[in-house]
Target: Leucine carboxyl methyltransferase 1
Amino acid sequence: MASHAPFTDSDTADEAVRATCDDASTCKRFATSKGYWSDPYIQYFVRQTGERKAPEINRGYYARVQGVNHLLDAFLQKTQCDCQVVNLGAGLDTSFWRLKAENTLPKKYFEVDFPMIVARKIHHIKAKSQLSKPLIETHSSDSLLLDGHSLDSDRYCIIGADLRDISSLEEKLRKFQINTELPTLFVSECVLVYMNPEQSYRLVHWAADTFHTAMFINYEQVNMADRFGQIMIENLQRRQCNLAGVDVCQSLDSQKERFLSTGWESVNALDMMTVYSLLPQDDMSRIERLEFLDEKELLQQLLQHYSICWAVKDALSLGISQIGF
Model:
């Protein structure tokens, strides 16, 4: 899933944030080419570049993808796919095609992102039958509703919108038949950190307020107050990329507080080093044989500065609050 944020197409900062979509997609493409996990669809969105990625980066993306998928799949299982998924800042993510291939699609899968990124994604889907055919197969008519900045079918919808403008976001989701009564999973990966705290609080509060049975998975930076965190911030600033929401990324407690203070019933958070240690051991042994890792300390530092936080509201008592690692 791409790591970038929901801004308008105006200034340099927004441009730098949009560029992180390509960074994340390129890293995933490289890691899958090395065999970390299988994603037969990413090749249709991202060309393989000659640029190598360090083993700790590949393992970091492996942990991120496996961690988020673990929670996503658990939600689909608990709801028996009688639910919907909303991927906020989805970028060039391929989860819809994975779920279609595994026959575990929710009732409807929504993606929201910058209009510019959405237009690119729609272009790829229209141009490649490997991407468009699965949409047609789950659609009751031959024609998909398409324009430059949105695509709608029975089971999959992409919307170009600014996540800071809640009323416009809600209006667009309702236009494409989002059902607020259905259990709903929100996913955001390195998205909220590019919004200021007030904007991200508004977004997660809207989600809790509007959907009675819901879960929110948020992957992003944590423990940013130490020296390693400062270096990460400085590296991004050199690329004109400002982490406007970094105050919420000080600790796992500050990450959880965002959800607890906006109407979510329960919330858990783990740093990615912990998630990495909880992933299935046989697969961990497999991926650790793929590449020699010279500096285990660097991997550890990197993973300690990212986290997965998941918040739940379970009005229908489906047991989604039991989901975890």
Q: What stands out?
A: The domain at 12-322 is CATH 3.40.50.150 (Rossmann fold). The mean pLDDT is 92. Strands lie at 84-88, 108-113, 145-147, 150-152, 156-160, 184-189, 213-221, 266-271, 306-314. Residues 4 and 67 are 18 Å apart (CA to CA).
